[in-house]
């Protein structure tokens, strides 16, 4: 399922409401997630919401509940590290005891994530926050939660199941718009001409699909830029480097790289340097995420622009769960507001990166 670009302005009340308000497989690092938390964008798509009364679920106060968080991927990726830490930090802020926040990590294995979610339910989770590995495939886990009348919030990646029926709501970025913003930055930093390679994210989820669509849709407005190659690096730094090394060999005249996350972009930097090229100068690089490593490279001149994808969902996720428990209507999608970094602000905003 693709995220449509928000088209209808929600009431100011919605935006304000969203922005105000056992053993573990993965242990806390003890580090703060830092930087600004994800907040709801002022413009939201319309659609029927979901209430406690509609679902028939029991009222569960967030501060007193057993809460399960299912992380999808290993936390070597800064996005995942910050995402999990944000959940932990907000739980601690709300006074939720450690033994009432159950955290699992699927290690990029869909079957394990299904088992993880079922395990969280068996261990008594009354509320679930899930970072899906893929857009498809989690239905057995969502069915298990529904059978136990446990509301599920999905974050970062959107599933193809039905909001309110199979899960409560999705909280995340407008990935199509991220792609469009990346294309506009690419046009700016290249002067509107060049040969572009795209390092695609992992297949099977809406993030890759939407970031690619947004980028290509917007790029048609800059006819001097041509996509000459695209290949998946699976959102991984080492794979991004390997793919970029191959693309340099097959397309030595590449002058720009659009990486669908920072980790692949940083891998591309390493590959370009290995080939004797100057990243950020000989080959322009634009990516999506907002990691400290990438933003620092912008400040140093070896990277050109990053569109933020804020992983700090903790406050908004817990606020949304509490609003649902209080009987308020929760929209099917909550689009967050994302920043961007370039040579004009990278040094000053480095502290906001993760």
Automatic annotation (TrEMBL):
Keywords, ordered alphabetically: Signal
Superkingdom in the source lineage: Bacteria
GO CC, one annotated term: cell envelope
InterPro entries: Peripla_BP_I, SBP_2_dom
Ranges of compositional bias, category Low complexity: 30-44
Residue ranges, annotated region (Disordered): 24-44
GO-annotated molecular function: carbohydrate binding
Entry's localization field: Cell envelope
Domain Periplasmic binding protein: 75-329
PROSITE patterns, per the entry: PROKAR_LIPOPROTEIN (PS51257)
Family statement: Belongs to the bacterial solute-binding protein 2 family.
Name the UniProt record assigns to this protein: LacI family transcriptional regulator
Gene from which this protein is expressed: rbsB
């Amino acid at each position: 399922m693709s995220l449509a670009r928000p088209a209808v302005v929600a009431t100011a009340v919605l935006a304000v409401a969203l922005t105000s308000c056992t053993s573990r497989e993965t242990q806390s690092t003890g580090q703060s997630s830092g930087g600004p938390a994800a907040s709801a964008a002022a413009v939201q798509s319309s659609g029927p919401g979901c209430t406690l009364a509609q679902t028939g679920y029991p009222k569960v106060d967030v501060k007193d509940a057993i809460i399960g968080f299912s992380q999808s991927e290993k936390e070597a990726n800064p996005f995942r590290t910050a995402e999990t830490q944000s959940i932990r930090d907000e739980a601690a802020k709300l006074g939720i005891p450690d033994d009432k926040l159950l955290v699992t990590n699927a290690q990029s294995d869909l079957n394990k994530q299904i088992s993880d979610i079922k395990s969280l339910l068996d261990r008594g989770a009354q509320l679930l926050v899930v970072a899906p590995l893929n857009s498809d495939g989690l239905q057995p886990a969502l069915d298990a939660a529904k059978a136990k009348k446990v509301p599920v919030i999905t974050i970062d990646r959107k599933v193809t199941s039905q909001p309110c029926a199979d899960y409560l709501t999705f909280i995340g970025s407008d990935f199509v718009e991220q792609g469009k913003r990346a294309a506009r930055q690419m046009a700016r930093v290249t002067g509107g001409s060049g040969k572009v390679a795209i390092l695609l994210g992992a297949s099977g989820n809406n993030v890759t699909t939407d970031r690619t669509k947004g980028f290509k849709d917007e790029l048609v407005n800059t006819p001097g830029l041509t996509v000459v190659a695209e290949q998946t690096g699976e959102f991984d730094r080492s794979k991004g480097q390997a793919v970029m090394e191959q693309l340099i060999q097959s397309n030595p005249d590449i002058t720009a790289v659009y990486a669908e996350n920072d980790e692949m972009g940083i891998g591309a930097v390493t590959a370009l340097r290995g080939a004797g090229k100057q990243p950020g100068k000989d080959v322009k690089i634009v990516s999506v995420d907002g990691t400290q490593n990438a933003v620092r490279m912008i400040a140093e001149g070896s990277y050109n622009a990053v569109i933020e994808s804020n992983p700090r969902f903790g406050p908004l996720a817990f606020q949304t769960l509490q609003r649902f428990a209080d009987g308020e209507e929760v929209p099917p999608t909550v689009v967050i507001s994302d920043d961007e970094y370039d040579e004009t602000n990278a040094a000053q905003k480095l502290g906001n990166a993760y």
